[in-house]
Amino acid sequence: MTTATALRTDSDPLERLNPAQRAAVVHGGGGVAGPLLVIAGAGTGKTHTLVHRLAHLVRSGADPRRILLMTFSRRAAAEMVRRAERLAVETMGPTAEVLARGLTWAGTFHAMGARLLREYAPAIGLDPGFTIHDREDSADLMALARHRLGVAGGPRRFPAKSTCLAIYSRAVNARAPLDEVLRDAFPWCAEWHGELKSLFATYVEAKQASAVLDYDDLLLYWHGLMQEAGLAAEIGGRFDHVLVDEYQDTNRLQSGILLALRPNGDGLTVVGDDAQSIYAFRAAEVRNILDFPDAFSPRATVVTLEQNYRSTPEILAAANAVIGEATEGFRKELRSDRPAGPRPRLATVWDEACQVDLICRDVLAAREEGLALREQAVLFRTAHHSGPLEVELVRRNIPFVKFGGLKFLDAAHVKDVLATLRLVQNPRDRVSGFRVLQLIPGIGAATATTVLDTLADAADPDEALSAVRVPARANAQWQEFVALFRQVRPGKLGWPGELEAVRQWYEPHLERRHDDAAPRRADLLQLEAIAAGFGDRTRFLTEITLDPPSATSDESGPPHRDEDYLILSTIHSAKGQEWRRVHVLNGVDGCIPSDLATGTSAEINEERRLFYVAMTRARDELTVIVPQRFYVHGQSKRGDRHVYASRTRFIPDRLLGHFEVARIPVATATAAPALATGATVDLASRMRAMWG
Ligand SMILES: Nc1ncnc2c1ncn2[C@@H]1O[C@H](COP(=O)(O)OP(=O)(O)OP(=O)(O)O)[C@@H](O)[C@H]1O
């Protein structure tokens, strides 16, 4: 043990907490107590407190195998368990490490649901070998159902497959009737009510016939499971404590599951910030957190955390002022004891090019002063907003990673390999099968359908596949595929050997299909490295579908781990993180709020919270950039090629005192005329045309 560790062993971790944090951590004295809601503002140590509570429970003798911890991502869960383990070791010594390893029920709602469903599948008539479809696979299956029903070909345009899936998903997650969902969220599709209903029935049948569950099913089936009193009692009885982070982003199904797990709230702790609720578009229900205290009798204990440890008082004052304009929510006035810093800067620049230039110069200047690139982040509302910046960063040789853009697993070659594994795992998975079989030259949709029909009814898929006849020109490669299927299916190759075998089989197809096979092959090797961290094929396929790695290697060429790089992130993906310096791109109406989300006051409020999340990621310095002019793509040569934008409505004039307002003249803009005050016009419809 190092001296540092030995020293720390003497101090009680509880003493490093403020009184409110401590009250939340020791609620119930380490035993099973009534329900607890920790309402915590941004940067007040929400995660910090939950980690301490976890460690405190373990230290107080709770059985870690009987603790269920649910977080927003698998990484967040792993990080919390690691930190709790470290804390427990501080006071209990190395035995705590062994104990904390027992915290195996830690992950996302979806992952925990998948695990329980596999266990309880036989009890609810589900095939335990089910595979899980990601959103894209689900959309493909929806397309097949749409085709089967013949709704797509008529004279009026039927909603696209992704819209159909969004409607379906919304109805399922919000537990709302279809007509209500159509009326509130998809009014332009309301005329298709009857067709959509039939479509969803067909989609559900197709999923069941293929033994696949989509993301929504993981919650829906889990919720269904919990409606059976006997099973609910059995599952609830497996846990003494249930801890939930980011409660503001749960939906009705999730809160229903929690209430069924802990009907009187005993042992239940939820933590969240209603001001950071940013997932309503996925049916997250901010009312879950607002109504939590009264869902129980006696009422839940509420602890409010208001001391912010992250940001300077100036940044916090501006963020408080922005969220203070919202109408509903728990009142929290965050305070910071950190030394004063500069006010956040509201930088008006001429156009997007100037915006990009300002960021590059700021970032490099800060690095000169010793601030690492990875301590700096650029945040934006929508993934494609960073396009011009990415181009310039590459040109200036400034390394960066981007979160929230194209996912590693969405790359075609990675999907091909995963689909192969999924078909091996579940030969009834038609979407995966359709993709894989058509990789083989000479096999088209018709043959693929025949093969999949054969597999669907087969008692022995290996035999069935060997007996299939395919067109002569496909035969040689078909035999290779059959050999692979028979080799990998029994699971004797070991893991990740099975994935390696699939990759080797796939390589000739990769070469044939893609000019840039080399970097794609590197991605597949990377996938193998990731796979090695999972116990077996089932675990891997489940977890990777539920919590995909977001490496964007094919987009931006991520720097090596030990290198320094700037962080580019959508605001959604920046959730829970912090940086010393933050730039927020496009602080204009149409971008923040997004002009796709300004229909209702609920939508506007969600956009305001999103802006609040962005602002509160900054520790020392914050810049919101307001470009005044945007280039309009795809116009005729003679058209007006720019639109003028106005400052985001979330910083009205009365809040300007919280900002240092700067008009940044930039070299490239010298030719640009200075805009007189009031010369900007808000042309929302033209903005829409720009992003359309
Ligand atoms: N009692 C404390 N003493 C010192 N530092 C603290 C304390 N509590 C939290 N912090 C620090 O404050 C920062 C914010 O904590 P944390 O990320 O847990 O906040 P959060 O409430 O989860 O934030 P957000 O919801 O905005 O993502 C972290 O750097 C954390 O280490």
TrEMBL record:
Segments forming domain UvrD-like helicase C-terminal: 313-576
Gene3D superfamilies, sorted: 1.10.10.160, P-loop containing nucleotide triphosphate hydrolases, PCRA, domain 4
Superkingdom assignment: Bacteria
Every UvrD-like helicase ATP-binding domain range: 15-312
GO molecular function, one term: 3'-5' DNA helicase activity
Family note: Belongs to the helicase family. UvrD subfamily.
Name of the protein described by the UniProt record: DNA 3'-5' helicase
Organism, as annotated: Amaricoccus macauensis
Lineage, top ranks: Bacteria, Pseudomonadati, Pseudomonadota, Alphaproteobacteria, Rhodobacterales
